[in-house]
Write a structure and sequence with these properties.
Its EC number is 1.4.1.1. This protein has 16 helices and 15 strands. It is an alpha/beta fold. The longest helix is centred in the C-terminal third of the chain and has 22 residues.
């Protein structure tokens, strides 16, 4: 008995697959990468070290470095030239020649005028100083903006933030120790004390990476360390990492007030990821601190987590309020410019290579979750909900934009 539906069908026809063309991976493309000299906030770091430039050139990319970009981090132009970079005399020349700009701080108003249509910008965003006008200008230009603060890998880590926060945590304690000395107007005490004299008390607000490294360094000095946080899990983790050598407590108003009142040093280290830092130490708490005590607010570039904080500079780093010394320099790692540059370089170079291997920024964002998470402006849209809420602007989901090809 023949089945009508199968009449005329041959074995060969039955075995033929239904073929569907697949999108082939785009080939490697040489990028023109620009590294400008930093001009804002007495910034001494540079985005790429000569070793990173050499790696990028070896991968087929062209790297343009503005004249003098690495001098303050002790990387002379000659080292960049030996690594294969082209030295460019002016920022105008650099921005006009490059499709991808990688820098430390977000562009100043003058640098914003130099950005080109559809460029890729990789830099810090500094939420405490970001304005809606800045974001609108990037959207108007069709710039793809990728922020250090937002780059989060698939394992949940923020690689650039972590590197800088390790430096900040260690530096915060070194700085506090200096300003506690009598010749700086401090209380005239040593962090670690000596035989028969008790150590200073260091209170750290925040048990994240900054808090952990501040605690490690303070313990190394021999100080008594108290860590407060609103996250119980973070407190458990820091106790585990530091072998229960720190005192921890939940950051309730009562505990914060009591700890701050007795502190020789208060380090603000509570970060709001992708948002402004929360204010946990109020002005009336600072007013109760002992004269000559020291506050180091490491979160000032995110708005600060101590109410009396305001941004200072490397040339004028401190001010006094209620006779308490406040150190609130936004770009603290800049004072360890060479170390911080190597740290940035180690994280940024693999991302730049990934963009080149992908063939386009669109493909790179599709393939690399870290870069995708880091993007805050893409194809004339704001793509971070936290920024949209902060400034009252509309936003579009980055994954929908990439998938739709809009």
């Amino acid at each position: 008995m023949e089945i009508p539906a199968l009449q005329g069908m041959t074995i060969g026809q039955a075995l033929l697959p239904m073929e569907k063309p697949l999108r082939l991976r785009e080939q490697h493309r040489s990028l023109r990468i620009g590294v400008p000299r930093e001009v804002a906030n007495e910034e001494r770091r540079v985005a790429l070290a000569p070793s990173g430039v050499a790696t990028l050139v070896a991968n087929g990319h062209e790297v343009y470095v503005e004249q003098g970009a690495g001098v303050l981090a002790n990387f002379p132009d000659a080292e960049y030239m030996e690594a294969g970079a082209q030295i460019v005399a002016t920022p105008e020349d650099l921005y006009s020649q490059c499709e991808l700009i990688v820098k430390v701080g977000r562009p100043t108003d003058d640098e914003l005028k130099l950005l080109q249509e559809n460029q890729v910008l990789i830099s810090a965003l500094h939420l405490g100083n970001t304005t809606p006008d800045f974001l609108r200008r990037l959207m108007e230009l069709g710039v793809t903006g990728i922020g250090f603060e937002f780059i989060r890998d698939s394992d949940g880590t923020l690689p650039i933030v972590r590197m800088m926060h390790e430096i900040m945590g260690s530096m915060a304690v070194q700085i506090a120790a200096r300003y506690l000395e009598s010749n700086e107007g401090g209380k005239g005490v040593m962090l670690g004390g000596i035989s028969g004299v008790p150590p200073a008390t260091v209170v750290i607000i925040g048990a994240g990476v900054v808090g952990e490294w501040a605690a490690r360094t303070a313990l190394g000095f021999g100080a008594h360390v108290v860590v407060l946080d609103t996250d119980l899990g973070a407190l458990r983790a820091i106790e585990h990492y530091l072998d229960r050598r720190v005192t921890t407590a939940m950051a309730s108003v009562e505990f914060i007030r009591k700890a701050v009142r007795s502190a020789d040093v208060v380090i603000g280290a509570k970060m709001g990821e992708g948002q402004r830092a929360p204010i946990l130490v109020t002005e009336d708490m600072v007013a109760e601190m002992q004269p000559g005590s020291v506050i180091v607010d490491t979160m000032i570039d995110q708005g600060g987590c101590i109410e009396t904080s305001r941004p200072t500079t490397h040339s004028n780093p401190v001010f006094r309020k209620y006779d308490v010394i406040h150190y609130c320099v936004p770009n603290m790692p800049s004072n360890a410019a060479r170390t911080a540059t190597y740290a940035l370089n180690n994280v940024l170079v693999p991302y730049l290579i990934e963009i080149g291997e992908s063939g386009s920024i669109h493909e790179a964002l599709w393939r690399n979750v870290g870069l995708r998470n880091g993007t805050y402006v893409y194809r004339r849209h704001l793509t971070k909900k936290s920024l949209a809420a902060m400034f009252g602007l509309p936003y579009r989901d980055i994954e929908l934009l990439i998938a739709s090809g809009l």
